[in-house]
Amino acid sequence: MNIIDITTEAGTAEVTYAEFGQGRPVVILHGGAGPQSVTAFAELFAARGDSRVIVPTHPGFAGTPRPDHLDSIRALAELYATMIDELDLTDVLLIGNSIGGWIAAELALIAGPRLSALILVDAAGLDVDGHPIADFFSLTMDQLADLSYFEPGAYRIDVDALPAPVKSAMAGNRAALLAYAGTSMADPTLRMRIAGIRIPTLVVWGQADRVVDPAHARAYATGIPGAALDLIDNAGHLPQLETPERLRDDVAAFVAGYQSALPATSRTPM
C-alpha cells in the first residue's frame, strides 16, 4: 500500500492506494462495498501486462481516516483530480463502480486533459424519475445481496460471524458512504451536467442490478455525448465480481475501438 497527502482548497487528506502492474495508467474507483470489491479486478486487468492500475481507498473506508472537509462526492472528485496531477498521470483510463462511478463522472468534468476515457460501471449519482436508487441504509445485508447480484446466494455475508475488526471497518465504510453520498446517492444536477463530459465513455451495467437499475444506464448513456452502452445479462450491481473477465474484455475492446480512430502517434496499447 502507498500513502500520499493531497491538499486541495478545502484542506489536506491522506489517501491510501494500491498499485498493480506497469504501463498506461488506469485508475479504478470503488463503491460502497469498499476497495476489496475492485481489488481482484484491478489485479486481473493489470495481468494483461500493459497497465499500471491504481486503486485509491476513499478516505473513511477500510479503516482509513476521513477529515471533516471531505463530505461530498464533489470533494472526492477534486481530491482525486489533484492526486492525478501530483502523481503526474496522463492518458488515464478512469473506471468507477457504484459511487465510484459517480465520483468518476464528476472527475471527468474537472480533470481536464489528463483523462483519456471513462468507464462507468453501474454508477450511482443520477436522479431518474420513477427509478430511485435503493436505500442502502434501510437494508439488511441479505436484502442488499438480493438486490445487488445476479446470483445472490454466492455472495451472502453472515455479519455475526465476522471478526470484530472487520465489523468495525464495515461500520466505518457505512458512515463514510453516508457522509459522501447521502441516503439518496444522487445529485439532481448531475444529469444535466454530464453533457459536459468530452472524453470517450462506456457505460457498463448488470441487467440484474436492482440497487441502481438499468434505467440509470440509459440515462448516463444518453446524457453523455457519444457514450456507448454495454448491458451484461448475468451480472448485477458489481460486474467486476460476477463477470470480471467479461468486464475486462469489454473495456479493452472499447479502448481499442476508440483508439483506432486516433492518429497512430496518439494511440496507447491496451
TrEMBL record:
Keywords: Hydrolase
Pfam family, one: Abhydrolase_6
GO molecular-function term, one example from the UniProt record: hydrolase activity
The keyword Translocase appears for this protein: no
Keyword Hydrolase appears in the UniProt entry: yes
Organism ancestry: Bacteria, Bacillati, Actinomycetota, Actinomycetes, Micrococcales
Annotated Gene Ontology cellular component terms: membrane
Protein name according to UniProt: Alpha/beta hydrolase
Domain AB hydrolase-1: 26-248
